[in-house]
Design a protein that fits this description.
Blueprint (H helix, E strand, L loop, with lengths): L7 E8 L3 H12 L4 E4 L13 E2 L1 H9 L3 H5 L4 E3 L1 E6 L2 E7 L10 E3 L2 H12 L5 E4 L3 E8 L2 E9 L2 E12 L6 H5 L5 E2 L4 E9 L10 E4 L2 E7 L3 E9 L3 H6 L2 H8 L20 E3 L4 E2 L4 E2 L2 E3 L5 E2 L7 H22 L5 H34 L8 H8 L1 H12 L24
Parallel strand pairs: 1-2, 1-11, 2-8, 5-14, 11-20
Antiparallel strand pairs: 3-7, 4-7, 5-6, 9-10, 10-11, 12-18, 13-16, 13-17, 14-15, 15-16, 18-21, 19-20
Helix pairs in contact: 1-4, 1-8, 8-9, 10-11
């Protein structure tokens, strides 16, 4: 009979090894705080997730001395962004004047980025990652959260922690167990992701492509195109029921590459659904528990900013909590409230912009109305200074964070390799 895993204890328990969870764990371990990360999957190999690494995140990697190591790994760089409405193409954003080392958006598979963060955190003896381990409940002491109950390959056990972080995404188990419900802002769309071969030096003349009833985003990923086909909310099953040929016929006229590329698709199962949600928690914390990233505020894929908002949350949390966690047995709840106060406006402002674009650009397009570039976009396309401003908003976002948490723990393991 297999013996049960022993109970564990730590200063910080992070549930969810996504961008927010691993970035936070890296920063906490770097500050000398014993941190356990709980991840329900055995690896990070789940396709069609956010692959955009914005300049704000790259600047944080630069703060940590990880910038060069990350960019030695396979990636693509986007230095300008454009949108095509019908037969017209408009410049939308220019990242050339950002006050950062990276003046581009990097594209890399999210599993590569998560592997990189886990490897960087693994240099610190205070970091531990438990894979194939699912958080199933909260441990409580009176009104305070004291850790999590988890189930792993050896059975159920407890991880007691002075502070628990819910970084387990938009379908957060911990959020449900804590009795916290998000405010739903809504989204008129879902996304079907698929990939097609890319040949030679093929380029897309626009990153965003709008046509009546259809929106396509082709992303250059080196030897393949990763494509997002934006569809009306809840329409995926009906579209797939029409069959592969009909679906290809709908998408192909928008593609910047030959129709023959679509021959690589074998069935409608090659299209993976992302159900878009935009919501946020009114309250991100309870005593002993703090939510960050998608668990606190699920973002629309518009702008690809979700991963970067999550990492900015993690940086702010580490900046504000490292010292209290180092000097006090348990950080008071007002420390957790300061994290929400620091990050809430950025989340709300970004979601407000996303909802406005959804309602005034995406939804009319998906309804099949005549596609015309809105006048603000035409103005941006005509004025270079405005393109730089949009580049700053996309690249850095609202209230970008810099790493200010301490580097108290010595690195005792091997440095990062080239990948």
């Amino acid at each position: 009979m297999q013996s049960a895993a022993p109970d564990l204890s730590c200063r910080c328990c992070v549930v969810g090894a996504g961008p927010a969870g691993l970035a936070l764990a890296l920063l906490l371990a770097r500050a000398g705080l014993e941190t356990i990360v709980v991840e329900k999957h055995a690896d990070f190999l789940r396709d069609f997730r956010g692959d955009t690494i914005h300049p704000s995140t790259l600047e944080a990697l630069n703060d940590l001395g990880l910038y060069d190591a990350f960019l030695r790994r396979p990636h693509q760089e986007m230095r300008t962004m454009s949108a095509r409405f019908g037969d017209e193409t408009f410049a939308l954003a220019d990242f050339a004047r950002l006050p950062t080392r990276a003046k581009f958006v990097a594209f890399a598979p999210q599993w590569h980025f998560l592997d990189f963060l886990a490897e960087a955190a693994g240099r610190y003896p205070q970091f531990r990652l438990l894979r194939s381990t699912a958080a199933v409940d909260l441990l409580t002491e009176g009104a305070r959260v004291a850790g999590v109950a988890v189930e792993g390959e050896s059975g159920r056990f407890s991880i007691r922690a002075d502070l628990t972080f819910g970084c387990d995404g938009r379908h957060s188990v911990l959020r449900e167990r804590a009795g916290l419900s998000p405010q739903v802002l809504g989204a008129p769309m879902d996304v079907l992701w698929f990939r097609l071969p890319r040949e030679g030096d093929e380029k897309a003349d626009a990153f965003l492509r709008f046509s009546p009833g259809r929106v396509l985003i082709p992303i250059d990923r080196g030897d393949y195109w990763q494509c997002a086909f934006v569809i009306p909310k809840g329409s995926a099953d009906a579209l797939k029921a029409r069959g592969l040929a009909a679906l290809v016929e709908t998408i192909a006229p928008l593609a910047p590459f030959p129709r023959a590329r679509f021959e690589a698709l074998q069935s409608v199962d090659d299209f993976k659904l992302l159900s878009v949600a935009v919501d946020r928690l009114p309250l991100w914390h309870k005593p002993g528990l703090l939510f960050l990233g998608d668990a606190a505020h699920a973002m629309s894929p518009i702008g690809g900013v979700g991963i970067n908002l999550a990492i900015q949350d993690a940086i702010a949390a580490a900046n504000l909590l490292s010292q209290p966690l180092t000097s006090q047995p348990r950080p008071p709840r007002d420390c957790l409230a300061r994290v929400q106060a620091r990050r809430e406006f950025a989340a709300k402002a970004t979601q407000a912009a996303q909802v406005a674009i959804q309602n005034h650009v995406v939804a009319p397009t998906l309804r099949g109305e005549k596609v015309e570039a809105p006048w603000p976009l035409r103005l941006v396309g005509a004025v270079p200074a405005l393109r730089l401003l949009v580049g700053r908003m996309i690249g850095l976002g609202v209230r970008p964070e810099r790493v200010r948490s301490p580097a108290a723990a010595p690195i005792v393991r091997a440095p990062l390799g080239p990948g």
